Amino acid sequence: MNNLLYKVDDRPPLVTTTLLAAQHMLAALGGIIAVPLVVGAILKLPADQVVALVNAALLGSGIVTIVQCKGIGPVGIRLPCVMGTSFAFVGAAISIGFEHGVAGILGSSLAGSVVMIVGSFFMPQIRKLFPHQVTAVVVTMIGLSLVPVAVDWAAGGKAPGADYGAPANLGIALFVLAIVVALVQFGKGIISASAIVIGIAIGYAVCLGLGLVDFSSVQKAAVFALPQPLHFGMSFPPSGIFAMALAYVVTMVETTGTFMALGAATETKMRGTLLKRGVLCDGVGSAFASTLGAPPMSTFAQNVGVISLTGVASRHVVALTGVMLALAGLFPVLGAVVVTIPQPVLGGAGLMMFAMILTAGVQMLGKVEHDKRTGLIIAVSIGCGLAVSVRPELLAKLPPFVNEIFGSGISTGAIMAVLLNLVLPNRPVEVHDDEEDVPQPLLVKDLEAV
User: Fold this and answer.
1) What does each C-alpha distance from 49 to 33, 45, 176, 196 come to in angstroms?
2) Are 348 and 94 in contact (CB under 8 A)?
3) Residue 85 φ then ψ, to 5°
4) Where are the transmembrane segments (predicted)?
5) Which is it for the CA torsion 366, 372, 377, 382, positive or negative?
6) Per-residue pLDDT for 425 more than 50?
7) Residues ≥6 apart with Cβ < 8 Å to 176
């Protein structure tokens, strides 16, 4: 049964497309600007350089998102993918930046992207390492890793402070969550599909009335800013290139898992050739972003939750999101306005979006063959992934390269699932791309039937 309101190649009306594209932008914008802000703050860069990093990240994310959705020749998966700067590269970027500055980060990013570009040509072979039980583990770990992000938003910020978990923050988040649930469950057509952006808009209006919106970022933002390619220059330290190459390998594993989740959400069979085009766009896009002066790019998992929640899988909608992100890079004041949305408002909507990915993963786990071997793969992989997610300090005393590989619960869970699937005896016959039956995503409207 078809659960999608709009399929991958459908073109909704312009007004509908704009609203739906705005939802994806709201889900991604915080993550896109967070990486340059974190790197800039830790490296103690001047304010103008941090602004240049943020603008380049938005512009690069927008352009690469359009390419990923629309495709140019062999580049681009032609599915609704939002691209953005990835936290998987933050550790490497900071270590390089302390010694070689932003020029070293960008040069290492450019050189390291070759790993992902070359690796993309082996995706048909890599795809065989991801049978259904492995894919189910990865999708579940994506959801488990994202839900705490939404919880921190709902509580008022990432690092616990005076306002973390304040009743006002939790009340706003629950209010927005209730609105989104009501709109998805009882709304029809565009109302249901636009539940996230409507819920955020109502929550924002309430925060405005309560005086909880800070407009200082809008007052400081420039109205228009041209991109400044090679503004920071480039250098190519061998140690930095190695660190970035390692981060690209980890990102390739995470991106593969995200594409698997995307395939389930969009009702698309995720064959090796599709993975090749998508990962190639990640690599080429990261190389392009480095010339703009932005950190490396990767496919955002959180936007898969938007698709699962709304049933809107149109790649043309997300291509418009790319246009919006690019405009935010050229007109910083636009991005600054979006940044004024209080985090509890985003947390209420984000909790629903990210939990939908987890729900899809649980549904996929329910369809795997239930035997001792599969149970071991699932239990050990999710257990190890949760271990580093819940207690990241677990790896603090290990060598830095171990942190780079296993610092993410998604990559840890994926690596463990792939390894266990290969080494445990009695491995079932591999499923080929043309024989695979991709499970359908579970939408909110289907929950009442479970």
Assistant:
1) 13, 6, 35, 33
2) no
3) -65, 140
4) 21-43, 49-67, 79-98, 104-122, 134-154, 166-184, 191-213, 241-262, 317-339, 345-362, 374-390, 405-424
5) positive
6) yes
7) 199, 200, 202, 203, 344, 345, 347, 348, 349
Question: Helix or strand or coil: residue 416?
Answer: helix
CA–CA distances in Å: residue 116 to residues 62, 247, 265, 336, 430: 20, 10, 24, 32, 25
**Which tens digit of pLDDT belongs to each residue from 147-181?**
998 899 899 876 666 789 999 999 999 999 999 99
Q: Which residues contact 387 (CB under 8 A, 6 or more apart)?
A: 394, 409, 412
The residues, ordered by sequence, that sit 6+ positions from 114 with a Cβ below 8 Å of its Cβ are 245, 283
CA angle 57, 300, 279 (to 5 degrees): 90
d(CA 62, CA 326): 4
Residues 6+ apart with CB under 8 A from 370: none
Q: Return the structure tokens found at 365.
A: 């786990």
Helix (H) or strand (E) holding 252: helix 238-266
Q: Which two tokens stand for residue 434?
A: 């043309």
Which amino acid does the sequence have at 220?
K
> Residue 202 above 70 pLDDT?
yes
Cβ atoms of residues 326 and 25 within 8 Å: no
* Least-confidence region, from 189-203, 215-229, 319-333: 215-229
- C-beta separation of 279 from 296 below 8 A: no
| Contact indicator for 364, 131 with CB cutoff of 8 Å | no
Token code pair at residue 296: 């490396």
CB count in 10 Å sphere of residue 31 = 19
How far is Cα 25 from Cα 44, in angstroms, rounded to an integer? Answer: 28
* pLDDT at site 159: 64
Q: Would you list the domain boundaries of the chain? A: 14-447
CA 338 to chain centre: 18
Local structure of 298: helix, strand or coil: strand
